Amino acid sequence: MKQLSGKGVSDGVAVGPLYFYRRGNGEIERREVADTAAENARFETARQTAIEQLGALYEKALAEVGEESAMLFEAHQMMLEDLDYVESIQGMIEGGLNAEAAVSDTAAMFADMFAAMDDAYIQARAADVRDISTRVIGILSGAVAGGVDSDVPVILAADDLAPSETVQLDKSKILGFVTRGGSGNSHTAILARTMGIPAICGVGNVLTENYEGQLAMIDGQTGEVVFDADEPTRERLLKKQAKERALKDMLEKLRGQPNVTLDGRNVMVYCNIGNPGDLDAVLQNGGGGIGLFRSEFLYLQGSDYLTEDEQFEAYKTVAERMGGKRVIIRTLDIGADKQADYFNLAHEENPAMGLRAIRICLTRPEVFRTQLRALYRASAYGKIAIMFPMITSVWEVQEIKRICSNIRSELANEGVPMADYVELGIMIETPAAVMMSDQLAKEVDFFSVGTNDLTQYTLAVDRQGQNLDKFFDAHHLAVLRMIKMAADNAHAAGIWIGICGELGADAELTETFLSMGIDELSVSPSAVLPLRNTIRSIDTSTCSDRLLRDL
């Protein structure tokens, strides 16, 4: 038996083969080829594979976000059929260049040609030709679409995964995660909790590719990673897995039940999602609404800025499927650990403190306007609310409201339908927002506490830091006092307050949050039923004074 150890960041036991995430190295191999016919055949095979992949993506997007957004993949298929594009690559190969380099050179040539055109539509095709070429090069070089090339579900291993990588994973093939680095607040950990599967981070360099394909047993609570388990260990972990399944079966009885405390207080239990594909889990688990739609994950899926129509279709899909329940969509939160290359953000020594979230939106008004227009258009199809991240000052909110008012006037003049009223809220995730929450509450309809960043900024601890877990204490009294101050100021101004950070699902703090008067908890879909179970066991009339005494 071989046992490795890390930090458990998402509970549960999983058993399956270990598989290492496949990513391209970003370098284009250049070499001379003698057998040009064989090289052209290799290119043709890759091209046909790319067309098939795009067809599958079209069908997936059609089901999840509608025909208008899905048409992008259809357009990419057509570009791969373009004779000028194909013949350019074939000609370079016949001249002795390998397929990867031929595709790369053709992509650069076509992209430069499109970018030089006067027509804005043609200019936008430069990004498309780069995108399809990257896909073909990835196939040629052995990179795997979706990161997993396996016929059976696997435990996925990696050094760590960037947000842009997690959003593109084929989640149907993942039983759990094990990473060499990362932290409990990494996006790999957050994705695992969203999916309700085990995850372990911080295993270190002892996790080598020698373990590829070996049967592993992982415990996301204790951080154990076991290969070739002996009988006692195997029996212990399988019993624990069976117990977890029994608990899930018990919680199923709570499906459809209200989130009401013993003393009769109703609590809003909403869900956090990253894209429309997460809605099935929300509806299956009985989420009362969407408390956080991380819209930036839509941007991370592509290679160029989303159009207004593409965003509109995604937001409309979520609003319609939630059937009139509140859907809170956070505006673009790019920056820091969430990077999209096409934004061309400058390197920053401390990106968590830099140009990110609302700061990007207020300094790139064309990006902000496009998203707000899409959001207001989608508001005609459901109960959409808009939430703004990384707020620190009243002037920011007042400027946002001025822009929103202008967007509404534009759309009204164009005769575009939209909701008569759209709630506007802000994330409370900086100490500045907490200290100004009495003034900010007069400007908005609701607050939502982002506990991950609030903890980071309050304690001056990098939430992504691999060796800082013992210092990143979300239960720290300073953090809890911040949340209570924001809650008191929200209620004094007559607005509601929720928590959408990972702390919202922490059963150890549910009583404390309800005692503070928190009105809404937004959690991963898999956490809805466990949270409902906890809420239904609490009597806030007897616990409030005791729990708030030290706050």
What would the average pLDDT be, to the nearest integer?
A: 89
Shape: globular
Straight-line distance between termini: 48 Å
CATH class category name of the largest domain = Alpha Beta
Instruction: Name the strands of the widest sheet in spatial order.
Output: 1-8-7-3-4-5-6-2
CATH topology-level name of the largest domain = TIM Barrel
Task: Describe the model.
It is a single chain. The protein folds into three domains: 2-22 and 147-250, Glucose Oxidase, domain 1 (3-Layer(bba) Sandwich); 36-141, Enzyme I, Chain A, domain 2, CATH 1.10.274; 257-548, TIM Barrel. The chain is 46% helix and 14% strand. The longest helix has 30 residues, at 36-65. With 551 residues, it is α/β, with parallel strands linked by helices.
Set out the fold topology.
Layout: E1 2-5, E2 7-10, E3 13-20, H1 36-65, H2 67-80, H3 83-94, H4 99-115, H5 120-141, E4 154-158, H6 163-166, E5 174-179, H7 187-195, E6 199-201, E7 215-219, E8 224-227, H8 231-251, E9 268-273, H9 279-284, E10 290-294, H10 296-300, H11 308-321, E11 326-330, H12 358-363, H13 365-378, E12 383-388, H14 394-413, E13 424-428, H15 431-435, H16 437-440, E14 446-449, H17 451-459, H18 477-492, E15 496-499, H19 510-516, E16 520-523, H20 528-535, H21 540-548
Parallel strand pairs: 3-4, 4-5, 5-6, 9-10, 9-16, 10-11, 11-12, 12-13, 13-14, 14-15, 15-16
Antiparallel strand pairs: 1-8, 2-6, 3-7, 7-8
Helix pairs in contact: 1-2, 1-5, 2-5, 3-4, 4-5, 11-13, 13-14, 19-21
